[in-house]
Amino acid sequence: MRIEFATGLALSVFIASGALATPGADDFRHQAMASDAFEIASSKIALGQSDNPKVREFARMMIHDHTLTTDHLLPGSGMTKADIEAKIAPGPDGKHKANELIDQSHAGTLDKLGSEKDKDFDSDYMSAQVSGHKDAVDLFEDFARHGKNRHLRLWARKTLPTLKMHLARAQGLDKGM
After folding, report:
1. The pLDDT of residue 20
2. Of 115, 160, 166, 167, which shows the fewest CB atoms inside 10 Å?
3. What is the pTM of this model?
4. What's 21's DSSP letter?
5. SS3 of residue 165 by DSSP
6. Does an H or E element contain 143, and which?
7. How many other β-carbons are positioned within 10 Å of the β-carbon of residue 122?
8. Tell me: the pLDDT tens digits for 119-129?
9. What pLDDT does 176 receive?
10. For residues 62 and 68, what is the distance between their CA atoms, to the nearest angstrom?
């Protein structure tokens, strides 16, 4: 049985006059870092739970690429790498707690993924990756077009092809689950 997770980013976009408002630079930074946090945390779980070499390869790519984007966004975020590691790690009870990077829905998804094995895990992990990357592509496309901060806007534009490649790979793997 395939479970569809509501893994969309908690995007702080508002519907006004039928159009989505582009987040400001700080909100964009936070939303992108929250997306990265989920991708990294879920992919670390994948390395421990999946026996599928394609899923494990995808997870390693997620950890690498999303760590790079987080490193770019870290200056000005008010956080350190140690802060981020602490926020994406499960607590002493093995459960993920909601915080400013991992919302309650994503914490629940991470805990669910941590309890699954084999094909159930692979299917749910890849489904979460497709959903999360669709949201990330939407966020980055919007900011790349309309963001007010020139530096972040250009960076979003430069990063977008990688996110689209992630989405295409996730969709391809997801179809095979």
Report:
1. 60
2. 115
3. 0.87
4. P
5. helix
6. helix 118-146
7. 24
8. 999 999 999 99
9. 87
10. 10
